[in-house]
Design brief:
heterodimer; A: alpha/beta; TIM Barrel; 6-stranded mixed β-sheet; 12 helices; 19 strands; 27% helix; B: alpha/beta; 8-stranded mixed β-sheet; 23% strand
């Protein structure tokens, strides 16, 4: 097991940190480093300070700063913290059953930072997550991008944009999940019409604001729902779009093109059928890997070859857990299944990290091990694509948030009595795992 | 040697088309490593298959492949995998009302419902699990009612229930804890459950005991000397009586420790043969399970931890093994996506979490066969057993390894390298 020089052991293991970000440089030595940004380094050094990467490279090229703490990670594999571009950890909620379009609703206002699912995600090596509302709406709300730092309150998890707001996307869906009884749409064409109508309203709203030119008298009344769509139209918020069937995927492309917004496709059960069209549109994809097809009509022709087909066609491909649909602790497995079905190894590893950072618009900050980026990294016991490999440590911005050697962390890594939630008030209305899943995917609650 | 075996293979392939009609063909499977499970792994091994049975197992150097045998080559050869508890073939791939036959919600106690009357051998999920090495499943009604129905043991040929069945009435599915309560699961399109009870754990046990007593009394009356006083046949009671005799044990789904103990209490009271199913809380009551002598068909390693199964863990398999409790792994029942799990993957996670390769492989082959009572037929690569094999291009538990073929009683399935 990796160990710190004694001087720092107490400080690190107690998790006692200065109020400001990590002051003393930390050098992780001896590990094979998969930086994602460049070639794999067989025995590399990573130096981090103030939560950022200070230096990275082969042992003989990186100077370890005087006074740096040293973590000997010989025999381990070091790679960027995993980025999950679609998850439901933290027991968050989105829109309710009152209408199919609820862009004013924020996951931010519902997340439980103490939920066991967040600890489990850290155990899976996940450091950044796009927490999504469900897919039972055409627009189910604003998603939230979070860092899985040690947290007391939701603010501790946020990723702040330069303007001070919390980073996040907008969740949209088409296909059967959002087709329900009125006032929800009853068909696919109706779904598309409702969405187009809403974006036209947003365009007009934006036009009115523009015409007012700052004159308070002429400004339209504030509309929370349209404000968010204006952010989408202006490229400040990426649409994260649930879609399974080939025709539904193409509908997403069509509407995004009409209104000129940036969209990422999610799930893509039938992505393998329309990979060239997706790649030609320049649209990124966040793919789920499942143990079997089926479970809903649209996943009947789910196939492991989707990420390989998309990669070959030239599309940007990421993976996601859709936790609880797949377990955050087994996120590495998605990449391995991608390789199993023909994806390249570098492509599959990027799909867990840098590609997902791009999908969230956070690639300037994270997703690869490069000087200046956030010091988010994981230590693995071996090859990231092997069944027998375990995530041993997870670090976020230079701080260790998971260590398999700590009994309390080990419990969340493997489960067992005590690893659940002591009370699940948020599950008051569900009676089985199936209901929970259905709820996560937007079924009537 | 290589050329000749390739020629042989080409020759055999031509012959294969007609042979398939008859089902089994004569096959030689050459494995870089053959894991018989019943014994030590064999490097460069050969398995000869004649008339659907294993005719010989031995080192390639000394095991002569007779002329006319079709040859298959794989890096790793294991016994065909056995899924000790599934609902595949009943809970269809589409998850629409018309293909969900794993639960009838009209009543909460229906042990008389037979799996063989619902099993759809043509459901694509049967072919899916077969394509990953599964050759035998114990499948049937889901743990979604106090007594939901029976299970059957079936080979995954995909022909039909009657042709493929090994045991048409293997176990009777009982569920305690939340799974067994009336509102346990919303079935797509099935509406609200019409049964009102059981609504609590205590009520569930009271109902179960009442039914068992009824069955006991029915059994006594049926044996009465005066034929005219014998009661009319009662399918439900007769099903339960087979749990008294041990012929068709109760498969009791339990997760919470208090429910595990309830199952053991009822079994003891009535002298029943039972098999514990699920058992997320098993680590809390290992001594009690061990003392009962009953085996466990453990929850899928990667099952979602929620509700009653909140305490499940990936190391529970290793803990059962350390305690000396006989157990097998299962794919279980999935109400949503993915619609089935695959025991190959569940065992892989157990293997990497303390169980180790050999024991993990046994949980989905020979150990499962023993619990299902079919070890004389399948579960290991031994002379005289059914020629059920799975072929891989590497360590079967590695995520990046492919299952390149499956053999069931000598019939070769190439569902595509998956």
């Amino acid at each position: 097991m990796a160990s710190f020089s004694l001087r720092w052991l107490a400080l690190f293991s107690c998790g006692v940190w200065p109020a400001s970000a990590q002051e003393t440089p930390l050098a992780i030595t001896g590990a094979q480093i998969i930086s994602i940004a460049g070639e794999t380094i067989s025995r590399g050094v990573l130096v981090v300070q103030h939560g950022k990467i200070l230096a990275i490279g082969p042992a003989d090229t990186v100077k370890i700063p005087v006074g740096a703490a040293v973590l000997d990670a010989s025999g381990k594999v070091l790679m960027p913290g995993l980025v999950d571009s679609h998850s439901h950890i933290g027991a968050g909620t989105g829109g309710d059953g009152s209408s199919p379009i609820q862009s004013d609703v924020r996951v931010l206002d519902s997340l439980d930072v103490r939920d066991a699912s967040i600890r489990k995600a850290r155990a899976g090596g996940i450091t950044t997550v796009n927490v999504m509302p469900g897919s039972g709406h055409l627009i189910s709300g604003q998603t939230l991008y979070i860092k899985l730092r040690e947290a007391r309150v939701i603010d501790d998890l946020l990723i702040k944009l330069p303007d001070g707001t919390a980073a996040g996307g907008l969740k949209m869906a088409n296909g059967t999940n959002s087709i329900r009884s009125a006032p929800f749409p009853g068909t696919r064409a109706k779904s598309a019409a409702l969405v187009r109508e809403q974006y036209l309203k947003a365009q007009e709203y934006r036009e009115k604001i523009k015409r007012a030119a700052g004159d308070v008298e002429k400004l339209p009344p504030r509309d929370l729902a349209l404000e968010e769509l204006v952010e989408v139209l202006e490229g400040k918020r990426i649409v994260q779009h649930h879609s399974h069937r080939a025709d539904d995927l193409l509908t997403v492309l069509r509407i995004a093109k009409e209104f000129g917004y940036k969209v990422v496709l999610h799930h893509l059960s039938e992505g393998w059928k329309v990979a060239p069209e997706i790649a030609a549109a320049g649209v990124a994809c966040s793919v789920i890997m499942l143990d079997a097809p089926g479970g809903k009509l649209e996943a009947r022709e789910f196939d492991w070859s989707t990420p390989a087909a998309l990669e070959k066609a030239g599309a940007l491909v990421g993976f996601h857990t859709d936790d609880p649909v797949t377990d955050s602790r087994l996120f590495l497995r998605s990449a391995a299944f991608g390789v199993r079905a023909g994806m390249t190894r570098p492509g599959a590893l990027a799909a867990l990290t840098l590609a997902n950072a791009k999908i969230l618009g956070l690639e300037q900050r994270l997703g690869s091990l490069e000087v200046g980026k956030d010091a988010d990294f994981i230590l693995l016991s071996g090859d990231p694509l092997s069944t027998y490999t375990h995530v041993e440590q997870t670090w976020i911005e230079g701080r260790k948030v998971f260590d398999r050697a700590r009994p309390e962390d080990h419990l969340y890594a493997v489960g067992g009595p005590g690893a659940g939630n002591p009370q699940r008030a948020h599950l008051c209305c569900f009676t089985s795992a199936g209901d929970l899943l259905a709820a996560a995917n937007g079924a009537n609650q | 040697m290589k050329t000749s075996s390739r020629l042989l293979s080409a020759f055999a392939l031509g012959f294969l088309t007609s042979a398939l009609v008859a089902g089994a063909e004569n096959v030689a499977v050459i494995g870089g490593t053959v894991y018989p499970v019943s014994g030590a792994p064999l490097k460069n091994g050969v398995v000869l298959i004649r008339d659907g049975k294993i005719a010989a197992v031995g080192p390639a150097a000394t095991t002569k492949i007779p002329a006319g045998y079709r040859t298959l080559t794989a890096t790793v050869v294991t016994p065909g995998l056995i899924d000790a508890h599934a609902t595949v073939g009943l809970s269809g791939i589409l998850n629409q009302p018309h293909d969900q036959d794993q639960i009838d919600k009209s009543a909460s106690f229906q042990p008389e419902l037979r799996a063989i009357d619902a099993y759809n051998a043509k459901d694509p999920l049967v072919a899916w699990v077969r394509s990953l090495g599964v050759t035998t499943v114990n499948t049937g009604h889901s743990p979604s009612a106090l007594a939901s129905g029976q299970t059957m043991i079936v080979k995954t040929f995909g022909r039909g229930a009657d042709q493929d069945v090994l045991n048409p009435a293997a176990m009777t599915a009982v569920a305690l804890g939340r799974n067994g309560l009336t509102a346990a699961e919303v079935v797509p399109g099935a509406g609200a459950p019409s049964a009102k009870a059981p609504g609590t754990r205590a009520k569930a046990i009271a109902m179960l005991r009442t039914e068992l007593i009824k069955a006991q009394e029915y059994g006594k009356k049926r044996e009465g000397k005066d034929e005219t006083k014998r009661p009319a046949h009662d399918l439900r009671a007769e099903t339960l009586l087979r749990a008294f005799s041990g012929e068709q044990p109760l498969l009791i789904n339990v997760h919470r420790q208090q429910d595990i103990l309830s199952a053991l209490r009822v079994a003891k009271e009535f002298g029943l043969k039972i098999i514990l199913d699920g058992c997320a809380d098993a680590p809390l009551v290992l001594n009690e399970i061990k003392a009962s002598g009953f085996p466990v068909i453990l929850h899928p390693t990667m099952a979602r931890s929620s509700e009653d199964a909140e305490n499940l863990g990936v190391e529970t398999a290793a803990k059962l093994r350390a305690a000396g409790i006989p157990f097998a792994l299962q794919s279980g029942y999935e109400s949503y996506v993915p619609k089935t799990r695959v025991v190959l993957f569940e065992a892989a996670i157990a293997a990497s979490n303390g169980l180790g390769f050999a024991a993990a492989l046994a949980t989905i082959t020979l150990d499962a066969a023993k619990i299902l009572g079919i070890a004389a037929r399948t579960g290991s690569v031994e002379v005289g057993k059914d020629a059920d094999l799975a072929l891989y291009d590497g360590d079967p538990f590695e995520y990046t390894t492919h299952c390149i073929g499956t053999v069931i009683a000598g019939e070769v399935f190439a569902d595509g390298s998956r």
